[in-house]
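Example noted here:
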Amino acid sequence: MFVTDLALTDFRSYENVVLSLEPGVTAFVGQNGQGKTNLVESIAYLSTFSSHRVAGDAALVRAGAARAVVQAKVQRDERPTLLELEIVAGRANRARLNRSPVRPRELLGQLRTVLFAPEDLALVKGDPDGRRRFCDDLLTLLGPRMAGVRTDYERVVKQRNALLKTAAAARRAGSAGDIRTLDVWDAKAAATGAQLLAARVRLLRDLRPHVQHSYEQVSSGQSLAELTYRASVNNDADEPLPEDELTRPDVVEAALLEAMGRLRSREIERGVSLVGPHRDDVELVLGGLPAKGYASHGESWSYALALRLASYQLLTTEGSWDGDGEPVLILDDVFAELDSRRRDRLAELVSPAQQVLITAAVAEDVPAALTGARLDVAEGTVSRAD
């Protein structure tokens, strides 16, 4: 799988830009603030409908424009596919597939990417929401239907929180509050949450050996990297569910319902849902200790790289998903952040990929092992280097 053409209209800093790309390595070279990251961000956004730089869509639309349009032609075996996504801040996106209008969700799975960026360090050192997002984005790449499960769960939790806040306000005012519909929202949250939670645990089970292998490759086998899913449904439970049980949606659904009943008074008091996938975490362990707080800066970088390399390997593994062709690899200003040893190891590991897109401030930041096409980016224009 590789991208052959990219066209942007009012995306980030670009009013209009049209590019032709090739398999192999392409490096976008330019000083900071010139727009090189915007180019690869647009490709990654088509893959998961999320940006590695911002949480919302508003920043993706060029200042003063009403909407942004991203078009990309993707080659899979001998089949070219044209993807188009129109991004309107504050409104639902609109999509076309081979020029025919479709639901945006139908674009998911047509292009798969794995993106490395300096922000990935937060996967190790940051808050749980980044690790949850890492899991959910990868689940969407492996099976696009999970995007719907994720959206449904977020909608249900939002509605349930609104009801809990209303009940909390009523309790503070001295009344009991109307919570007759809370049982309904409990059931919906448990059903959708169980699907998402079980899928995450299955994902980590499949990802674990790839992470261990990737960390050994990047760090020369200095420590053992492990991943453990910390489910909030197990907090204060009389009999916490083991990992095998957490992979079963029916078991998880029952456990979530029990936990919601047990925590109802506390949830009403605080006006927020206290149990479910939105409260879970993935603990990253290195050499038997939590990586967050114990790993050095270099070890944290190695772990972050291992997570992305493992994602690429899992997506590429035959039979691991319902598409064909390995994902596009995107390395956004990563090499400048790495020491020479990790830079060389990463370059060696990704060089066989079918398509690698790199951004770098100067050409010297691109390792010699990743030779290929070079596009210079300056003041919002893109030109092929001599």
